[in-house]
Design goal:
heterodimer, A: about 500 residues, alpha/beta, Rossmann fold, nine-stranded mixed beta sheet, disordered C terminus, B: 5 strands
Chain lengths: ~500, ~120
């Protein structure tokens, strides 16, 4: 007789929960026993049922056994508003059974017997036991409870089904049940000041890699959506960096000359400056160069799309036309209670889907405000930036400086200067009781650039940059002084106006 | 009623196999190692033996060797069960059939049915 072709447990059971299969590297392992734990209201039942309906949609069969006082009517009533709920699957493919009385009358042995028989009778590919805490309370000793889990595991292999055990969070850090199961997923509902953020963590997953640490999730009308932590998801960029050497126009000819041809392709730049200095305006020029070969995207937090179009029109830039041509689009999120990884994952999805090559992120601090843990932000931006780079996206961030005039410049997000290749600096200077806008290139990695300070004006034709500026000195203190008359005179907007 | 002997040091596995096979209408005997297994065989000759490979005291290989060396028992079909593949077994270890652990009920019943000439239940 030939060797058994018995399926090895490397086969996956996809959960169908957006984001979770990414965290689990493809789903649960077939015939594995997994514990799903969390406090009441954490989302265990929704998550388990979402997996059940996905399993049924894939042609599988599910046995859902409850050990709780909650009736099935109530359970189904609560699931009904969710889009994954499909009554046509019940009871043929998804069967709900209560084993509460079996457990009370027959103990753990009786329950195990019922689970085994019913799972086999229903040809279940997935067995859910909702209310494991009731089993734990019914066990005479911890050893009995451990044996129950062990026996269940053996039956999972024999019956050929994957088992999900739902329980409230264990008081013990390492309960006996945790040592027995193939994996443990915990759901949290964290309070962060006045806001709350749901989080999922895979605490154990035998026989497979997974994305470690906490991942935010949301309960939506479509069920649970897991948002893999960007810096865990993109520990390494998804592909090799092709190190392109082409230049990408900023949309401002004089600035391109300062940059010796434009921004390096697939590089990341940040524009620092106080409010009103012209950061968004510069970004709109950059986006106005969007084309079929270089689709553009504005990812913003503050100015709404209608206001952006209005602003562009005032600058003589027709972004609406670009949008109609399908070469430019906008994603806008008010900087309210957002989830950082939701923003990051959405941004990357749109960039990939539309093949975006020009990306303008207006207000990088919008990410910072969404971060439940602000200390993450530099890691988040590093992962995001690295990925955008390998996707061939030339990215421009704006980052607002809080003071209008300053002698010392403090960057609002620590470490951001090391993440980006290029830094442009916009600021106001006061000279002869007038405010003037200045632009300078502070950094351009591995490239020559013109480091002179340039005055610029924002007109109905967009940004106009002076050829050069030598009309004043001590500019970077924010309080310029008229330059000494012995200096060579060159044409500059500031000098002309300061006469 | 056909008699099956399950020899496995893992109680959970022998219990589970025993329950499944009893449901199918077999009389199931259980032993925890090869030594106990040989004692059960002497007490009541089984129609088929499900034998774990790695066990304490007397392992599956030794028990199989003892059975195959005894003219009274060498015709009893033996299904070796192990988490290591059949090709990893030593050349002198030649069971009638082999089940790679973990295996499912359907596979188990197919192998048992094939060796016994049909399922226990009509």
């Amino acid at each position: 007789m030939s060797e058994s072709m018995t399926e090895r447990p490397q086969d996956r059971v996809p959960t169908g929960v957006p984001g979770l299969d990414i965290v689990l590297h493809g789903g649960f392992l077939r015939r594995g026993v997994y514990m799903l734990q969390g406090r009441p209201g954490a989302g265990k039942t929704i998550l388990a049922n979402q997996v059940c309906f996905h399993q049924a949609a894939q042609g599988g069969r599910v046995l859902y056994v409850t050990l709780l006082a909650e009736t099935h009517d109530r359970l189904l009533f609560n699931l009904e508003p969710l889009t994954f709920f499909d009554t046509s699957r019940i009871p043929e493919q998804i069967t709900y059974l209560s084993a509460f009385s079996t457990l009370e009358e027959g103990g753990l042995k009786g329950l195990l017997e019922v689970l085994r028989r019913e799972a086999r009778a229903h040809k279940a590919t997935l067995l859910v036991v909702d209310g494991l805490v009731t089993v734990e309370e019914s066990a005479q000793t911890k050893k009995d409870f451990k044996k129950f889990i062990h026996d269940l595991q053996i039956h999972a292999h024999l019956i050929g089904c994957t088992i999900l055990l739902l329980t409230s969070a264990s008081a013990e850090m390492v309960g006996p049940e945790h040592t027995m199961v193939d994996g443990v997923l915990e759901l949290f509902d964290n309070r962060l000041g006045r806001r709350a953020e749901r989080e999922l963590e895979v605490k154990k997953f035998r026989g497979s890699g997974y994305l470690r640490g906490g991942h935010a999730f949301q309960i939506t009308r479509d069920g649970i959506v897991v948002l893999p932590r960007i810096e865990a998801l993109l520990q390494e960029p998804s592909r090799e960096d092709s190190c392109k050497t082409d230049r990408v126009s900023t949309g401002i000819a004089q600035l391109d000359r300062m940059l010796k041809g434009g921004l390096p392709c697939a590089s990341t730049s940040v524009i620092f400056g106080p409010t009103g200095a012209g950061k968004t305006t510069l970004g709109l020029h950059f986006l106005n160069e969007s084309s079929r070969s270089e689709p553009g995207l504005l990812f913003g937090f503050y100015e709404t799309p209608p206001r952006i179009f209005l602003k562009a029109r005032a600058l003589g830039l027709d972004l609406e036309k670009k949008q109609k041509q399908g070469v430019f689009d906008m994603l806008w999120h008010a900087p309210t209670e957002r989830i950082l990884d939701g923003l990051g994952n959405e941004l990357l999805a749109v960039v990939r889907e539309r093949g975006v090559k020009r990306l303008f992120i207006d207000g990088v601090d919008g990410f910072q405000k969404a971060a439940a843990h602000p200390d993450r932000i530099s890691h988040f931006l590093a992962a995001l930036t690295n990925e955008l780079r390998v996707l061939g996206v030339t990215t421009l961030y704006t980052n607002e400086l809080q003071q209008l005039f300053y002698q010392e410049v403090r960057l609002p997000i620590s470490g951001i200067s090391s993440l980006v290749e290029n830094i442009l600096f916009l600021r106001f200077v006061e000279l002869h009781s007038r405010l003037h806008r200045l632009l300078s290139v502070i950094k351009m990695r591995d490239s020559d650039y013109d480091s002179s300070l340039r005055e610029f004006r924002i007109t109905s034709r967009g940004i106009e940059l002076a050829d050069t500026f030598l009309g004043a000195e001590s500019i970077l203190t924010g309080e310029a002084k008229a330059a000494s008359p012995s200096r060579p005179k060159r044409r500059s907007l500031l000098k002309k106006r300061s006469r | 009623m056909k008699t099956l002997l399950v020899v496995d040091d893992e109680v959970g596995i022998s219990d589970a196999l025993s329950e499944v096979l009893s449901d199918e209408g077999f009389l199931v005997l259980v032993a925890r190692n090869g030594k106990e297994g040989l004692e059960r065989v002497a007490e009541k000759r089984p129609d088929l033996i499900l034998l774990d490979y790695m066990m304490p005291v007397v392992d599956g290989r030794e028990m199989l060797k003892a059975l195959q060396g005894d003219s009274a028992y060498r015709d009893i079909p033996v299904v070796m069960m192990s988490a290591i593949s059949r090709s990893s077994l030593p050349p002198d270890c030649k069971p009638t059939a082999f089940l790679l652990k973990p295996f499912g009920i359907d596979r188990l019943l197919a192998v048992v049915g094939q060796l016994l000439g049909g399922p226990a239940k009509p």
